[in-house]
Fold:
Amino acid sequence: MKKIEHIGIAVKDLEASNLLFEKLFGAPAYKTEEVESEGVKTSFFMNGPNKIELLEATNPDSPIAKFLEKKGEGIHHIAFDVEDIVAETERLKKEGFTILNEIPKRGADNKLVAFLHPKGTNGVLVELCQEIP
Ligand code: CO
Structure:
């Protein structure tokens, strides 16, 4: 597992939060993208070397909708860059972590992603992501 690739923040209103983060960083989102299979609309900001992902739910069954209901807006996940997501999920499985999706799936921003269950990581939802070449 390598550097933090991005931090994901759950928001209720993506348009409003895009404006807020544009003010915060002094630059607009470089991309917005809907991931239909996940029921989310996302936007991405770069601030220096750091990437922030904002996530809004697009339907009430979306994991983001459930998160907002339970916890409200705030940090939703931390994503780490990995070179080989299949090898890394296998390694972590052997270490006893619960992988939410053992077969990596296509996430936003051109990545293959897999998530670790937060109950095994001190309450933090961990995303592994590998750039799709
Ligand atoms: Co993410």
